[in-house]
Specification:
7-stranded mixed sheet, 2 helices, globular, alpha+beta, about 150 residues
Length: about 150
């Protein structure tokens, strides 16, 4: 049948986790984007709702308990160096409990909370797309908060 992302476009999810104006990033060990800092995420399993996949992947990779999430964007990544092609839904989580851990050392080598104004390098294109999607999401949240006042 082939492998998603390699033999045909894969369908994935990514989750931006924010706490205290900082983003949680992990450094990837394996392709795609080995050696790059990335948001958490992965592929969507057959018959699994994408939002559920985003929460599952994030909890598996971080050890955090993920609460409410919101969809912020759709991205397409064609990674020439790894010959991979992914279409992903991006989500945002501010409602998280616990402290992050390195739960999958075979996939991820390091992690940290980073201010959006001082991000590590190199960042994956996937992560850059997610960060770009934050601006409209943050604006709509501020607008909703001011409307509620």
């Amino acid at each position: 049948m082939g492998k998603p992302g390699l033999d045909f476009p894969g369908f994935g999810v990514g989750l931006v986790i924010l706490r205290d104006a900082k983003i949680l990033l992990y450094k990837r060990v394996r392709p795609p984007d080995a050696g790059y800092w990335n948001i958490v995420g992965g592929k969507v399993d057959h018959m699994e709702p994408a939002e559920q996949a985003a929460r599952r992947e994030a909890e598996e990779e971080t050890g955090l308990k993920i609460g409410r999430i919101e969809r912020i964007a759709v991205t397409e990544q064609i990674i020439d160096t790894d010959r991979q092609h992914w279409i992903s839904l991006l989500y945002l989580a501010r409602d998280v409990d616990g402290e992050p851990q390195l739960t999958e050392p075979d996939k991820l080598s390091d992690f940290g909370w980073f201010p959006l104004t001082d991000l590590p390098e190199p960042l994956s294109a996937f992560t850059k797309a997610a960060i770009a999607a934050l601006a409209p999401a943050e604006s709509s949240q501020r607008s909703a908060l001011s409307d509620a006042s």
